[in-house]
Amino acid sequence: MSPIKIDHELSLRLPDVASDAPALFAQLAASRTTIAKWLPWADQITSPEQEATFLRMSKQDRGLLLVITADQRPVGMVSFNRFMNEQREAEVGYWLGNQVTGRGIMHRSLQALCEYGFANYPLEKIWVKVAVDNVASNAVVRGAGFQLKTVKPQALELHGRFHDENWWLLQATDFKPKRVSEKG
């Protein structure tokens, strides 16, 4: 897969384990408190070697994990965590380092992932599940054109407590693509 150029600043690309693991770990370590609040796995990655192991394992997985680069530096990740082929659906996950939040990076990255997904996979629906209390993530998903379909009470366990979870949906028929290209 060629990198996906979003704009002059951003691209999405497959991970290069050797070069991306240290950079992504540094982003994660600097942002651990914020990220781990909503994504408990963040507390379990405590070294660049563990990040490298995760990246290698993701290549074996049935999803699509992409590195978000801003000015050619890894700043986070966005992924189709899993594809539900029979239903023609996928579920998305993402995280971004604190140093680059507030610049629309995740919004643009999520839109680009959706555009790539609808163009290259037999998808009709893309889902994102977000804790109701995660204000920033809910704003990203809403801004990317997703519609809130349901709130699942006490569906998400975070740090030993259950939280309500928003299930956001973007359907292919409702998607309004931006101009995103693959670099060849």
UniProtKB/TrEMBL annotation:
GO molecular function terms noted in the UniProt entry? protein N-terminal-serine acetyltransferase activity; protein-N-terminal-alanine acetyltransferase activity
Organism superkingdom: Bacteria
Q: Record's GO cellular component, any one?
A: cytoplasm
Question: Record's InterPro entries?
Answer: Acyl_CoA_acyltransferase, GNAT_dom, Ribosomal_N-acetyltransferase
Q: Which Pfam families match?
A: Acetyltransf_3 (PF13302)
- The record places domain N-acetyltransferase at 23-173
Protein's name in the database: Ribosomal protein acetylating enzyme
Query: What organism does the record attribute this protein to?
Result: Fructilactobacillus florum 8D
Q: What is the lineage of its organism?
A: Bacteria, Bacillati, Bacillota, Bacilli, Lactobacillales
